[in-house]
Specification:
The protein has 255 residues and is an alpha/beta fold. The protein is built from four helices and 27 strands.
């Protein structure tokens, strides 16, 4: 059974899994689905077509599923989807999508620290950690196992690739390639995310290959097109780096 505090307002049409805990003064709407074993703190608001996975933690004051801050939005039935074992700490806000993507997505095993904002149509990959007061504008895409330091604003439509790391207090106006570290305002690349890749179990040979490729792409006298041509057809993970840079629409951060 779920344990619901007597002051919480839970619509009888909401679907709460086995062992869900709802603390004082929280509000859960009719279309909300909450997975088994999830803990919902006090003063949490869950609205709209919001689906939260199993064994998640929603901290005090979290607000999920409210309408996007987009003048084009006209009340369409869009959604928020949050994976299993994800933690949203105090006062995190997550807006539902527009029709552009249909669903704002946060993956499994993520940690979003206090005061993070996730705007409409964002997609965050599994295992990502986002520190305090990071602000994601609309349509941001973040890969798997990314780390973003606190007090960082991220421009709309920016992509941050798998296993990248962005230092705290940075400003992110362009794409950050996978496997790389970036920091500052203006933002710049400062090498391969060696610590993160080591923790992820990437083989030393693959880390070395990424280091060589990043020097060629971002720290050599070669033009970007020449470097990409030389790296064409490279196996993963260098191939993933090349594909990301080639497909960038906002442009990629420079070293």
């Amino acid at each position: 059974m779920s344990a619901i505090h007597p002051t919480a307002l839970v619509d009888p049409r909401a679907r709460l899994g086995e062992g869900v805990t709802v603390d004082a003064y929280s509000i859960i709407g009719a279309e909300v689905v909450v997975g088994a074993g999830t803990t919902i703190g006090s003063h949490v608001v869950l609205e709209g077509r919001t689906t939260i996975g199993a064994a998640c933690v929603m901290g005090h004051g979290v607000v999920i599923g409210t309408p996007p801050q987009d003048r084009k939005y006209a009340g369409e039935p869009t959604a928020v989807l949050i994976g299993d074992r994800t933690q949203l700490r105090e006062y995190v806000t997550v807006h539902r999508a527009t029709m552009a993507r249909g669903t704002t997505v946060i993956g499994h095993d993520c940690l979003l620290m206090a005061y993070v904002h996730v705007a409409h149509d964002c997609a965050i990959g599994d295992g990502t950690v986002i520190a305090n007061a990071v602000q994601l504008a609309g349509h941001v895409t973040i890969g798997r196992s990314v780390t973003i330091g606190g007090l960082t604003p991220i421009h709309q439509f920016v992509r941050i690739g798998d296993y990248a790391m962005v230092g705290g207090g940075s400003r992110v106006p362009q794409d950050v390639p996978p496997f790389m570290r970036a920091v500052g305002d203006p933002l710049r690349l400062v090498g391969v995310n060696t610590v993160g890749l080591t923790r992820a179990g990437l083989a030393p040979a693959d880390r070395d290959a990424l280091a060589r490729a990043s020097r060629l792409l971002f720290n050599s006298s070669r033009s970007r097109s020449e470097a990409l041509e030389e790296l064409a057809g490279a196996p993963a993970p260098v191939g993933q780096l090349v594909a990301f840079v080639t497909s960038s629409e906002r442009g990629v951060v420079h070293a």
